[in-house]
Specification:
rod-shaped, transmembrane helix, 4 helices, alpha+beta, four-stranded antiparallel β-sheet
Length: 385
Amino acid sequence: MSESASPQRWGEEHMIDLGAVGEPGPAPDPAPSPTRRFLRIPNAALAYAAVAIALAAAAVTVVKWSPLHRPPAESTVADFLEAVHDGDVEAALALTDQKDAEGEFLVPEALDSRWEITEVAQVEHTDNGDGKATAEVYAEIEGPDGSRIGHRYQVAVDRGEAEIIGAMAETEAWGSFDHLDLNGVQMPIDLQGGPKYIMLLPGYYEFYPGMPSTMEFETEGSMLVLGDKFLSPASGVVDNWMPSPWLLVSQEGEDEVNAVLRAFLDDCAVNPSAEACPFKFPRDPDRDLALLPGAQWEVTVYPEVRAERLWYEHSRGFRLESSLPGEARAQAVITEDGETRTALVSCPVLVDGLYAAFDFDAGFSIETGDETYEDSCRAVIEVDA
């Protein structure tokens, strides 16, 4: 929900004659006229007259509450929201003091019409004299799931012409990847540069709508925007900062990561000296180890891994952790106490600290880990053949 309760309107009347304030009161009523004898009117005629009066009163009420008779500030905010909902960015901006605003998301393609205007009401009005005034207009919109968000717009009125002041606020652009995608419109994010700021028109925005099924959001990846406020429907929290969804690897993604890791380990078995391969022999002050000429590692048990439930790290991806360790074996030459022998050795396979980087076109790949990752056997154990 947006704010706790919608503010009350001024009162029952929409139109107030501000020019009447301070004017002298009306002249006293004239003396009552002499009593007159009323003509007797048939009951049928009285009935017709009553109906006519009722119809006239109804017509006056309709005119009074017609949207055509809204205060200029209220009407302008309503027109602004309707233009945005219709995808007419130019018409919407023309009603604000940000007519020349530009940005990646200030285009019709970035707008989604799956939201409704639920309330527009002028709640404050200040006469500044010389035909000028300032007003505050409360607006509320509703998203496709029934979530609502409200905002008070500041409106300047000059001789009946109204303009919304600061209809959009700048917000820092956060991206789960190296780009931000809202409703299918993408904006690259320079990970090495400073923060980038954007402006958003009111409405409903979906993060990364083209994201593959190998990934998912921990909560719904959407938001409602109105003025300088953002609502994440899943959490129900209204904030002045744009939310950024929490990315997770789906079960399909976990399966793909494990498949990519198995291929990575198979390549490492052939070339254990390659970057990030975990089959290098560790330094041992008591003995020297080397692969038997012509021998190579064989992965006998592949580790099972999962992506940690951590924020997707830019330029690295999802950090991996071992849910079950694996094992690799190879024939090795061992030199110890001046004697040399051959033996079948076992190396545990742990991948904690490696990363599953992601590319929207190529999918997952295994990348060099951080300082916690060990690219060598943590222990070498001789085993019986």
